[in-house]
Structures are given as C-alpha cells and as structure tokens.
Structure prediction request, 129 residues.
Amino acid sequence: MSKGRILIIEDNMDNHELIRFFLERDGYDTFLAMTGPEGLQAAIKQVPDLVLVDLALPIMDGWDVTRKIRENEKTARLPIVAVTARTMPIDRMRAIEAGCDEYIAKPIDFVALLGAVNRLMERTKRTRG
Ligand code: MN
Prediction:
C-alpha cells in the first residue's frame, strides 16, 4: 500500500529522478510538475499528501508557489518541504516565512529528506485522528 502521494515541483530532471527514486523506494507515489504555475495547478487539482518544492523554478518561484498553496483553502494545510541550492540563512528564513514546513539543502541528503517527509506525514495522520 502506498504511504501517500507526493507532488515534486522540480525543473531539473536529474534532481527529479533522484528524489523520485528515494521516495518511491520508501513507499510513496510521486508525480511531477516542472514549473511554478504547473506545480500550483497540480497541487490544487490533485491535492497530494505532501509537496516537495524546488525554490528556483521557471515562471513562478517556489516561494510564490508556496504562498499561493497556503492561500487556497483546499491546499492551505498541505505539508510543504523546500528543496533548494539556496542555503543562505536568509533563504531558509524566506522559505519558512512563505509557509514551508521544512527546508532541505542541495546537494540533497536523502536520509534527511526522507526523515522530514516521514515526520510530516505522521503529523498529518495524527491531526486527522
Ligand atoms: Mn530549479
């Protein structure tokens, strides 16, 4: 049985393939969006269990995607994990301010990524009772 559906918003195919490999091996189903607007639309239409968002995305960046996900009542409470090469403290702060629950730096530590994802999925289960 699937542990949940995760939307990966990532424009770099190599990163996407790696992330997908680790998440699916851990029991998750994944689907992909490659631009900010595509990711936002997929989040609202398909309401995944969790969103992984790259912050540097074409057309609309990951901070704006996160804010818009938070503004929509269908998706306002989705767990969101930022995955980014932008690792200055200010970038982390902006990601959290935009509404991300967790922040994972690139190059990706997949143990940390799975830890964050599993932790947020557990939190969702508890909240739903
Ligand atoms: Mn990118």
Q: What stands out?
A: The pocket of manganese (II) ion is lined by residues 11-12, 54, 56-57 (CB under 6 Å). The first strand starts at residue 5 and ends at 9. The chain is about 50% helix and 20% strand.
